[in-house]
């Protein structure tokens, strides 16, 4: 009788172990699916921000000119235009900073990051970003993003 109870206990332990393994596999699948859903949601929000920024900057020729001029050659603008262009460019920098941080926090898939990295690098390599680095407002951007920008600029041979 004791041997029968021990056999039942052993069978119960085996069944319990198998159940735990199955539940861990299920949890792993759920985590993977949740990660995909989170990444898809993040990408959707970023795409909406992209569209909003593009529509705002294209809403008037003057805004488009200021943002382009500040990005490419801020010194060519008048003092008043530089102030306005700085704030417009700051909004664009904030957007690419968000992309950078979403990638750092693994909220973007590798594919989505590859499609956005050239945008981020284009901004950090611009003359406007160089002007931002010299401005006291640069402290209001994430330190790791600013460091990334400095590193990319140094790799590209751009002096600050």
Terminus-to-terminus distance: 85 Å
The parts where pLDDT drops under 50 for at least 5 residues are none
* Overall 3D form: elongated
Biggest sheet features: none
Structural class: mainly alpha
The overall number of domains is 1
Count of individual helical segments: 6
What value does the Rg take, in angstroms?
26 Å
List how many beta strands DSSP finds.
0
Secondary-structure element string: HHHHHH
Strand fraction: under 5%
Mean pLDDT: 85
Helix content: over 70%
Write a brief caption for the model:
The protein has 160 residues and is an all-alpha fold.
Describe this protein with a few key phrases.
membrane, 81% helix, mainly alpha, single chain, transmembrane helix, elongated, 160 residues, transmembrane, 6 helices
Characterise this structure.
With 160 residues, the protein is mainly α. The protein has one domain. Helix content is 81%, strand content 0%. It has 6 helices and no strands. Helix 3 packs antiparallel against helix 4. It starts with a helix and ends in a 5-residue tail after the last helix. The model has no long low-confidence stretch (mean pLDDT 85).
Write the layout of secondary structure elements.
Layout: H1 2-57, H2 61-72, H3 79-104, H4 110-124, H5 127-134, H6 143-155
Helix pairs in contact: 1-3, 2-3, 3-4
